[in-house]
Structures are given as structure tokens and as C-alpha cells.
Amino acid sequence: MLPDSIEAAFPLPDQAQWRNAVDKVLKGADFEKRLVSHSADGIRIEPLYPAASAAMRPSRAAPGRWHVGARLDHPSPEAARDLALADLEGGADMLVLSFAGARAARGYGLIADDVEALDTALEGVMPELIRLRLDPAPEGRSNALLLAALLERRGVDPAKLMVDFGLDPVGVLASHGELTTDWPGLGRRLATDIGELRARGFQGPFLTADTRPYHEAGATEAQELGAAMATAIAYLRALEAGGMALDQARDAISFVLVADTDEFLTIAKFRAARLLWARVQQACGLEPRPMVLHAETAWRSLTRRDPWVNLLRATVATFSAGIGGADFLTVLPFTAALGLPDAFARRIARNTQLILLEEANLWRVADPAAGAGGFEALTQALCEQGWGKLQELEREAGNGLPGIVAALGSGHVQQGLARQRDLRARAIATRREPITGTSEFPNLGEAQVSVLDLAPLAGSKPAGSSMRAATAVSPEGTFKAELLPSRRLAEDFEVLRDKADTFAAQHGKRPNVFLATLGSVADFTARAGFARNLFEAGGLSAPGHDGFPGDGGSDLAALLAAFEASGARLACLCGSDAGYANEAVAAAQALQAKGATVWLAGKPGELEGPLNQAGVDAFIFAGCDVVEALRNAHAVAAS
């Protein structure tokens, strides 16, 4: 007899049944350690969630496609124009104007000091058909007025334009270390400037709460959300104090969030941002309106080594921002950490979005994460954590300064980000958080990629280097703070690779490590592969071979002859636990007698004392500090 329904034929298991099945597979292993993880904010991430219904749905202002952004950041107006037109003809419908001096320009940026130069850069661009956004910069007010003057000169009706003027003095304080005037005066000037632009017909947004400086300095998802909300609240209060109605002040603000490579947390972060902004509006007595949300893929996740992997990172980030509800999205080209991207890299960045829009049709479902238990739980948790970070920043307010500004001035923000940055650096150094192509699976024979042959502008930081924290020195009467560093996650490994490349250029070969394998191929393959991968992550050569098998063990004479022929100064023993017990001490003594510095792959256990006495200087194993190990290896191998 057939069942009445498919549900009756296949009844759903409950949570207890699922857990019993999991426990059988784990065979006594710890459930918490194996299947439960935690975000950088300490949010518990379960392996399974029940279905959920969103109590409040994070909605966009209008359903449909997100807008595809392209950067206008070449210093030459003519070259910037050509690159931008190619992007627009290829499917982009938004230009991000990144003037020289903007942090996001990464040492480059459009040089346009007058209307004529800006007119050249935007020649052939029809602003009424696309969106324009200005990257925040120290000269943001001048840049905004310059763009407004150009659009007026062209006779375009400002009311028909979508221009985000990108004024963000708080973001400039975070990224450059100073405000050019006191906060009350700045608030009055912002209200005046926005009022004048509105009187000329521009609709805005005019102010941006940009979280990129915090993200690049190591911010967690909750810290980024807290900074975004605290910045927006500071602008609301400043504009209201300057005489602007609160609803008009609200409509003057847009947001820039970072789309990173953690798909679940990025989607939840974007959804949480919309809910938090609605809550802020409610607290102000306003009827909530959807935020204007720009997204940009993560600078800190880009790598200079094996940069093709950046294509995968950008795809995950783009997918996450689209699913999370971004209105506008800019994908950083995969070569951005190496220099100013060329037309090919820009085309790939653009097409990453277009494929997800046109072929994957991501835009056709509004908030596809709604009702998914995992996403709803993470969204709610980030709302709670982000609100807590906002309150923490607000408690720093005083002496006429809003919370976020006072927290930057006192170093409160910098200290919190430094703690997170150090924790992340430790996870990367120990490869608990691996970076494909850099700390894991490095490619010493990688092909070079091309960037535009253009040196960074004088006085600017090159694209591939960190901006170190420093106290800004500014004229008396301006507000100063320690600027936030801009740091990519892969930099420690890249420094080591660069050092090895310099050695190779000077000596004709890389510094090398001899893999002193013990026993048969089956005995040493796992640890030899681990050691080779580790050393190559620092640019050191560690050639593989078939080993030195002998009667009942290893041919020590053949091993020593191979070591001497290699010219290496560092030898790393690789074998099985049984092989170490039988042969490691003798092999280490013999290698040391030949002048080798001896390491061993694996944890020594009870053999540590005898191995140390035999001459083993260090042990490399899963969970060790790989960066520190590679620094020490360089000191030996390149000596």
C-alpha cells in the first residue's frame, strides 16, 4: 500500500537521531573539537542548524541586479579614461573615482586638480546612464566639489544622477591619522556642503561610513559592523547639530563593507548590517529605510604569490556580497597587490560579477539566505555582537567628540584591532588558517603576471606594502590619531619569498634544504612532502628524491654523499616514527659531523633529548610557527 505522502514514506530524522549517527562516525572523538568552530568574534558555528524564519528581513531598497563597479584609479586622465570606457563597454555600470591620496588608490590614483583634467578622465562617459562613487580621501571635499562642477558644466540634470560623493572624515582619520579641523566645526561644514549640493540638485548620498580601514587593520566582522554604525551615528549627530533634519541626514549616508573569503560570515555580515542600520533608525525615531550598501572585495586577502588564486577568493567574495544583498559591488583585480592592474585583470574582475549575475542568476531571488538556519543564526549573532561593539565605541564619547572619533583618538580602536591582528597572524603563522599558494601549496615556478608599468606616486605607499601605524603630525588645532595599518594576511610569507628570490638572483640558485630521508619511500613520503611544502612556502628549494634504502634501514653513506653533493647547509630528517627510533640519532650525528645544521620533520616525543644531544636543532610539525621556522631556515640555508 502506498503512503499518503512523500513525508510519510521518508520521515525526517530528528536532532537526536542525527547526533547518534554522528557519534557513531566520530567513534569517540570529541564532537566539539571536530565539528564545532568559532568565528573571530567567538560566535559558535554549528555543523547543523534547524530551519528558521527571519523575524525581520534585511531588504534592499529595490530588488534586482546589483551594480557592477570598476575603478578609475590610473594617475593619467587619458589612461584612466581608456580603461574606464573599456569597463563600461564590457558591462560595468558604476565607476569608482579614486583620486590620488585616497587610501584605496594603493599608491596610485587619478591626478585631476581641475575640471579640465577630470573632464578628460570622464570623456565619453555618460553619467546619467551609470553610477558614480568617490573613494574617501583627505581631499574628499575638493574632489566632490570638482565632480559637481564638471557635471554642472556638462549641463546634466543633477536630479537624474546617482552620485555618491564619498565624504568620510572619520574614515580619513582612521586611515590617514588626522582631521583638518575640530569636530564641531567639521560637522557644521559637512551640513553646509551637503545643503549646497542638495540646493544644486544633487540627491546624494554624500557621506560614507567606510569600513575598509578597519578591515585592513584586522577587524572582525562584529568590529567592522560596530565601526560602521558608530560612524553613521556620528554623522547623524553632526548633521543634526548643523541644522539638518534627521531624516535628511539619514538619507545623506551610504555604507561600504568588505566582502571577504568566508562565505557564511560575509553573507551574515551584510544581512546584519541592514538590520543594525534599521535598528539605529528606529532608535532615532525614524521610519527605517534600507541602507545604500556598497561592497568591495577584501584587500587583506589578496596575495602577491600565485595571484591566480585571487580569482577564487574574488569569486567567493562576490558570491557572498551578492547573496548578502549588496547594492553596488567592486571586485579588486587579481593583480592589485602587485601594482596597478592592466586591462586584462580589470576585465576578469568585471566578468566575475557578470557571470554570477547573467549565468548564475544570483540576483533573481531576494535574500536567498532567508530561512536557512545557519545564516539566520549567524546573522542574529552578528547583530548582537555588532551592537555590543557599537555600544563599546559609544561609551568612549566625551569632550564634544562622538564615540568613534574619541575611540580613535584615545587608541581604543587601535588596541582592539591590534589584538585581533596578532591572533590572526598567529593562526596564519601556524597554518591553522592556511593561505593557498602562499603558506600552503606554494609554486616556486609560478609564471609572472603583468601589471601596468607605472611606479607608485611620490609620497605614496606602493600597492604591495603595509602602511605601518604612526602618529600623524598635523598643525596645531587639528585632531590627531594613530592611523590604522593596512596589512594583507600573506605579507609575512611574501617577505620570506622575496628574500629567497633576491638570493637566487645574486647566486643563480635558491637557498636549498636537503631532505635527509630515512627508510623506504613509503616510510618517508608523508613527512618529506610536509617538509618540502613548508620550506617552499619561504622560497627555499627542497628537492625530492627516491631515498637511500639499505639492508634493513637506510644507506647512511649514500645519504651523506648526497648531502655533500647538494651544497646545502640545512638538512631535515624525514621518516617514520619507527625509523626515527632506529636511525635518527646516528643520522643526525653523521650529518652534523659533515657540517650540517640538522632539523627533523615531526614531533620528537620521547626522543627529543637524545635527538638534541645528537645535534638536532629544531623540529617542524603541524601547528608549529612556520614563519619563525622559515626565518631560522633562511638564516642557515642562505648563510
Structure description:
With 639 residues, the protein is α/β, with parallel strands linked by helices. It folds into two domains: 67-424, Methylmalonyl-CoA mutase (TIM Barrel, Alpha-Beta Barrel), CATH 3.20.20.240; 493-637, Rossmann fold, CATH 3.40.50.280. 46% of the residues lie in helices and 11% in strands. The protein contains 23 helices and 18 strands. The strands form five sheets. Strands 6-5-4-3-11-10-9-8 form an eight-stranded parallel β-sheet. Strands 13-16-17-18 form a four-stranded parallel β-sheet, with helices on both faces. Strands 1-2 form a two-stranded antiparallel sheet. Helix 4 runs parallel beside helix 5 (115-121) and helix 13 (309-324) crosses helix 14. The radius of gyration is 28 Å and the shape is globular.
Question: What is this entry, summarized?
Answer:
The protein is of the alpha/beta class. It contains 23 helices and 18 strands.
Write down how many β-strands occur, each being a DSSP E stretch of 2 or more residues: 18
Overall structural class, as computed from helix and strand content, comes to: alpha/beta
- CATH class membership of the largest domain: Alpha Beta
Biggest sheet details: 8 strands, parallel
Number of DSSP helices?
23
CATH homologous superfamily designation of the largest domain: Methylmalonyl-CoA mutase
Summed up, the domain count is 2
Inertia-based shape: globular
Distance between the termini: 81 Å
